[in-house]
Amino acid sequence: MQVSGRVLVCDSIDQAGIDSLKRAGLQVDYRPEIKAAELVAAARDFEVIVVRSRTKVTKEVIDAAANARIIARVGVGLDNVDVRAAEARKIKVINAPEAAATAVAELAIGLMISLARSIPRADAEGKRGNWIKKDLMGTQLSGKYLGIVGVGNIGRHTGRLAKALHMNLIGYDPFPINRDFISETGMIVTDLDTLVESADFITCHVPATPETKHMFNAARFARMKPTAYLVNTSRGEIIDEAALYSALKAGRPAGAALDVYETEPPTNKDLLNLPNVVCTPHIGAQTKEAQELASTVIAEKIIQILRGVI
Ligand code: NAD
Fold it and tell me: Domain range holding 237?
């Protein structure tokens, strides 16, 4: 069944989703560079507004979008959409939480190995002509305890990959953790402080909420093993970066890998320049496969909503 309506795509998204929307009969305006003021001016003409992370769908945009029925985020978090303002107008807000799990989990594992084997430093020094083999005594993941903070979609995916590397899993989540996952992986479920004290590696997969803001702070770093590594591919706000800088300088934890930051792009250059920090520029979901999946999942949801199926 064909559907009609106009869709404004405000950020660059994979072509596959745009093709699906057009095939279903929708008129798609692809404006991946659109500025905030231009969006406010244009919003009235569209039934659907699609964004990734660059565009902020503020209350001002929502107030201007008099004909909007759907706001779609091609990604997981909805931090850049004023969901409350949209709901007040009965505009459906949708996202693609399932699409990025594999990509983010693989990055989390990659960051753990990068920390444990100092791969970025080895690479940088090697390219400068420095053979620093004796400085690079690493540690193995196999047999180590991985603490997963937030055992949702991505946390579970990361756990399964870590199991394949023969790691032992410890998990913390204030909400019930999937029972099948626990029996499949043998995860030990505990409270956050016990996890922080026991883990050799900690990987964070929680949403940004008032409860998770600075959940990793000076007190938590002081509880970590001096040999432990911390990986954050979730949201920057969950780590107090000033406290992390001091903790890493003091040698506890041994290192940290960050894909997300309190402000993005990050301004805390002293933290990023520490030799025991590995940093990536929010690339968790930045794989061809994840972007294609997110864009097609979102297109399918938009079409189904406009058809009145969901
Ligand atoms: P999810 O909703 O499936 O899982 C989040 C889990 O965190 C849930 O199980 C929830 O119960 C738990 N949680 C909530 N509050 C908590 C708390 N106070 N302490 C511990 N756990 C808590 O979400 P997901 O798809 O697994 O995504 C996890 C995070 O990854 C989100 O912050 C998301 O924005 C982020 N993410 C980052 C990238 C990236 O590019 N780096 C890409 C996709 C997603």
Answer: 101-279
- The question of whether 282 is a catalytic residue gets the answer yes
CB of residue 207 inside a 6 A radius of ligand 1: yes
Q: Could you tell me the pTM of the whole model?
A: 0.93
Alpha carbon of 273 to ligand 1 centroid (Å):
27
SS3 category, 22: helix
- Decide if 161 contacts 214 (C-beta within 8 A): no
Say whether both 120 and 91 belong to one domain: no
pLDDT less than 70: residues of the chain: none
**Residues 195-223 pLDDT 10s:** 999 999 999 999 999 999 999 999 999 99
Residue 203 C-alpha to ligand 1 middle, in angstroms? 11
Which residue from 181, 206, 278 has its CB within 8 A of the most atoms of ligand 1, so it is best to mutate?
Answer: 206
- Residue 132 to residue 34: CA distance in whole angstroms: 47
The CATH number that applies at residue 205 is 3.40.50.720
Q: Are 240 and 216 in contact (CB under 8 A)?
A: yes
Per DSSP, the three-state class of 126 is helix
